[in-house]
């Protein structure tokens, strides 16, 4: 299948669906599976959840998914219906499309179904039945895939989003709406240039965080620097989120492991240093012992040779030197005390920063836990709202 956007042709294949949505590719086609055997009561049992509803709608399925506590066959079928209506094919009358359920039984390996080809089949079928500019014709095909496919392949002046796979993880609803509004106001929908063919780079380490020698030769313009810095900041944010999530999981599973606590403290320090005022984002602590030794060496280098030299003078001069030496010693003691006071103030400031960073980290962990608890509800609400 080929999509024509203002003279620019984009070829759509099963791999395109996989890149955009990240759903399983390959395996058995849905329509090639055997339909329900006569003695299978799975469908009847599933419908018992909606015995109070004359018409099964997505909102009812969403409420059951959120309230369920068991990942049984009914949960799988509920999620499957939600997925099909949101990403494959819905209906124009508000009813749920339950056609795929006729091929799903207790023995069906749902993960082995070629869902990418099914989305592609739905796209072709719904496109052929859709009549543009008709008040009575509605497109009920995979709109989410088409939006992501457009956003990933057509360059936009509105904003820059990192091209990763699957695309659905990087183009959130807010960015889609922002781009849509921008292109409508500027009358630039579909007028952007085609993006270069996507090359799947290794995600580990986020290569944008490390600049190679070849990259340095390419940074000759303001645009090049802006692009590079933007990509590095995006990579840094993703790495921080991944690290925080991985640490939380590790500490939950292995609370007795001290090394994970050490990693957590380092992460807390980094977050705290980022939020401090000033230009410097990362401030590496100085070694106080080395600093003190260095100051003592400076004091000795500045005073001792002078005293040794003057001690070789006559006795009359020695008395004055001793007085100067006593004076220098007192001044040195006063200076050391002043430095000790400053060091104590610095220590107190560091302790206060550590406490603030720890409090911030605990607050973020509480927010993260709350978000995790409501994640399923948010995902389902977002899917249903976009479909409806």
UniProtKB/TrEMBL annotation:
Q: Name residues in a coiled coil.
A: 222-253
Supply the alphabetized keyword list. Coiled coil
Basic and acidic residues: which segments have biased composition?
A: 324-366
Annotated transmembrane regions? none
- Which spans does this entry mark as compositional bias, Acidic residues? 203-216, 288-300
Q: Which domain of life is it from?
A: Eukaryota
Protein's UniProt keywords contain Transport: no
Segment Disordered: which positions?
A: 203-222, 274-374
Q: Does the keyword Coiled coil apply?
A: yes
Record's PANTHER family?
AMINOTRANSFERASE-LIKE PLANT MOBILE DOMAIN-CONTAINING PROTEIN (PTHR34835:SF90), OS07G0283600 PROTEIN-RELATED (PTHR34835)
Q: What is this protein called?
A: Uncharacterized protein
Q: What is the lineage of its organism?
A: Eukaryota, Viridiplantae, Streptophyta, Embryophyta, Tracheophyta
